[in-house]
């Protein structure tokens, strides 16, 4: 993995050479160092095939997610950024959060910009594979729900984990390529199209412009981005079945995309109706303009992409509150999107309904069903534990951020956007029109820790901390 | 119940007569009407003893909680307040929320002020009895945990539900009387002492002064209030055992008071340490002054009393975020305090730890223990459902409040303070130095609905809405 990340630096180096930038040695040296470290680790661990118990899987996941960001900081440090800022930018990239401490992106060397996009793209596929392969095995956060499907698939289509990974990777690459071509056709430069396709499909949200997607606001590219961000929030395991095997039925019968679609449309309609009824003078030229802008930004926040096409934090109070709520929602399981995710929301609501029904009829057993199957109480508990842990982390991070001196709205939205890996917060300090550059150093470390926690779906890290874990 | 509420109006009438106020006919007429309605209902339903299935218990609870506020509005309407404001004040009183739409309290007829205090006092004992007797029976929100204790008690000490109710009532009355005497000894007028003891022990928070407890800030009464608010957040079933039966062991072995105490002290220490380290010029004269103020207001918010002794929303950003978080915490189960409550917090955290341990050792069954007993998966699920429903209600109410035109901090803290029955929100509009008087009419209805939902511990209302409920 480390060696791969090192190899991933080479394109950035080549681009900088092509641009006659003086940054190219950075990437070549970092690349060489990383490949050497990676090869060394591989040789060291290569002898014995690792035993793959839950404990080893956890350990490996956590070690990788701590080692990769360290390597990823090297180009930023060489570029002259502080250790804090470099780590923040690398973690924010690899976790696909997309919160940035950099300004003046329009005049930043293209090597660095490409490096940021590549980090997110690698982070994205890493997360998708983790969600499809590792989390169901570890029974984390209710992901065991999706294990049956994978083993279904492994019986019929995908004999081995490496094949699942390879096929998912191909689909990811394919959709990213299509996205880049469409972006270019919509008028983006080749560089912008490639960089943005990488950060769209990973739900990452790093842009090559300070104005984020506002740079392309009201161009066809904004429509394309709305579509591809939505796609990035769909379950990739099912997209793989659909695209590589022509099986549309699992996709059509999955309840997640439906809820995801209607939530995005619903929120946009609420915003537009409220805008038409109340806001005077209007922010939008006409209803359709408003709906387009609302949909772009809601999908961007729900999937956790974090592109902003407009300063939605100035549209009004309900929009602020809705965007804060949307920050938590996330996309579908098995995508690069973040947050609580559709299936957990649906299962939680069904658990509430089932419990209410159970109280009324104590003599009957009321079961929670999801996608036609009975949800085991083990899964139910693991979903509830996830949601609770998620919100507890959010509250603790909010308090810590406020203690570093951030104002309440910034602290709360900063904690929300970090734990959900969304990117922009709310308010003048860290809102969509601003960056995380000027928040206190301590706040940056709180944010990046929270990003890692959110990305690892918590339980991995918490398990590592459990004393029993170490007692063997 | 309705007749009792009518009878409860008589003291207010007498006080107004004594004050030569022209308000006294209001109370006598309202009182007569209520007693008549109550007597009529009693005669109508008196024939058949009601069957006490879960369904009937739910229905009764909800009907009572809708009927009582209607009766309680009569004095406010007669006093000249609008229907919205009267309903808000009555619901806020009976649910012991204590958010008010009235200003100029210092010059308001004492009959109305006493009526507000009596509403909260009645609401408080109603809630305590509901929590001790009805909720465990209905298995709502994990309250079944406390059923074993009640049936323990019923076997040894308290043969029947009426006796539990009577004994709890006596202890409630006793502590309220002591509280009033102590307040008077601390220099309050007799009227203030009685009114404030009623709103302290019910965790209600209505005051007789616009400045709330700020009127008595830095007097001995503030110390007394800190102590009695803390007592109001303790489990009354255990206080009853302690006071009437001298059994201190159940009290000492309950983990709730400990967590409750340390959370309150912990938050205060964080606030004071942060204040000493960062805030310049200081808000407080010296460390002890700061600790005293922080502890008073934190306990006030945690228990949901909602007295404010200082404009803590201006102390700084961390204080705002901590108070917002504290709004959700609540006191112990079986008290008049509100919020998520200590035992649900502790069980949720233990469920997280147990789940993490379970993942590491899939072959072993890891059980959640609370107070030395194994928590059944049914109870666990019901606690998780409660927490989820609580937060979902909070999010929906936040969005609705923001749609009525409230700013984000007011909308979010307004939703939090309503669902938790705390009282004051945050920010200039509804903060501790202000009232709910100037929020939009629609927002008042959203708030009072949320208060009722929070007070009924949700599942009651939710169950009523379940279509299966009606199918029988
Ligand atoms: K993102
Ligand atoms: K209150």
Automatic annotation (TrEMBL), chains A, B:
GO terms for molecular function: metal ion binding; potassium:chloride symporter activity. Its main location: membrane. Pfam families: TrkH (PF02386). Keywords: Cell inner membrane, Cell membrane, Ion transport, Membrane, Metal-binding, Potassium, Potassium transport, Transmembrane, Transmembrane helix, Transport. It is found in: Cell inner membrane; Cell membrane. It comes from the Bacteria. The chain crosses the membrane at residues 25-45, 57-77, 118-138, 170-191, 221-245, 257-275, 319-340, 383-403, 442-465. Coiled coil: none annotated. It is a multi-pass membrane protein. K(+) binds at residues 96-97, 204, 305, 421-422. The keyword Nucleotidyltransferase does not apply. One of its GO terms (cellular component) is plasma membrane. PANTHER family: TRK SYSTEM POTASSIUM UPTAKE PROTEIN (PTHR32024:SF3), TRK SYSTEM POTASSIUM UPTAKE PROTEIN TRKG-RELATED (PTHR32024). Low-affinity potassium transport system. Interacts with Trk system potassium uptake protein TrkA. This is Trk system potassium uptake protein.
């Amino acid at each position: 993995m480390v060696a791969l990340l090192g190899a991933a630096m080479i394109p950035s180096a080549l681009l900088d050479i092509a641009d006659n930038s003086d940054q190219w040695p950075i990437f070549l040296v970092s690349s060489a160092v990383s490949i050497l470290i990676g090869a060394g680790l591989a040789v060291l661990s290569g002898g014995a095939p690792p035993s793959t118990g839950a404990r080893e899987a956890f350990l490996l996941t956590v070690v990788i997610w701590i080692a990769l960001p360290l390597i990823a900081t090297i180009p930023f440090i060489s570029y002259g950024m502080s250790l804090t800022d470099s780590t923040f930018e690398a973690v924010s990239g690899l976790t696909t959060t997309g919160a940035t401490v950099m300004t003046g992106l329009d005049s930043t060397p293209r090597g660095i910009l490409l490096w940021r996009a590549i980090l997110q793209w690698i982070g994205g596929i890493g997360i998708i594979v983790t969600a499809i392969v590792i989390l169901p095995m570890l029974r984390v956060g209710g992901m065991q729900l999706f294990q049956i499907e994978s083993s279904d698939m492994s019986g019929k289509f995908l004999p081995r984990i490496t094949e699942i990974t390879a096929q998912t990777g191909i689909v990811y690459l394919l959709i990213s390529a299509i996205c880049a071509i469409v972006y270019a056709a919509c008028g983006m430069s080749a560089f912008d199209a490639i960089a943005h396709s990488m950060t769209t499909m990973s739900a990452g949200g790093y842009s090559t412009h300070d104005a984020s997607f506002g740079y392309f606001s009201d161009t066809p590219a904004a429509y394309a981005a709305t579509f591809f961000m939505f796609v990035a929030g769909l379950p990739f395991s099912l997209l793989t079945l659909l695209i590589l095997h022509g099986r549309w039925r699992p996709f059509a019968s999955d309840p997640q995309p439906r809820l995801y679609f209607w939530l995005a449309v619903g929120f946009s309609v609420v915003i537009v109706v409220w805008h038409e009824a109340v806001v005077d003078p209007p922010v939008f030229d006409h209803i359709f303009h408003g709906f387009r802008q609302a949909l772009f930004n809601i999908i961007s926040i729900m999937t956790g992409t974090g592109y902003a096409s407009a300063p939605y934090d100035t549209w009004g109070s309900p929009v602020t509150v809705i965007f804060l709520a949307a920050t938590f929602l996330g996309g579908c399981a098995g995508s690069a999107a973040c947050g609580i995710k559709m299936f957990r929301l649906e299962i939680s609501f069904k658990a509430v309904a089932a419990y209410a029904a159970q109280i009324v009829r104590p003599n009957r057993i009321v079961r929670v069903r999801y996608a036609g199957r009975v949800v085991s109480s083990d899964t139910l508990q693991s979903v509830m534990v996830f949601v609770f842990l998620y919100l507890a982390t959010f509250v603790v991070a909010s308090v810590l951020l406020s203690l570093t001196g951030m104002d309440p709205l910034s602290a709360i939205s900063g904690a929300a956007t970090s734990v959900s890996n969304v990117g922009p917060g709310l308010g003048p300090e860290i809102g969509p029109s601003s960056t995380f550059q000027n928040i206190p150093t301590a706040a940056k470390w709180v944010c990046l820790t929270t990003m890692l926690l959110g990305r690892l779906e918590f339980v991995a890290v918490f398990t590592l901390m459990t004393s029993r874990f170490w007692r063997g």
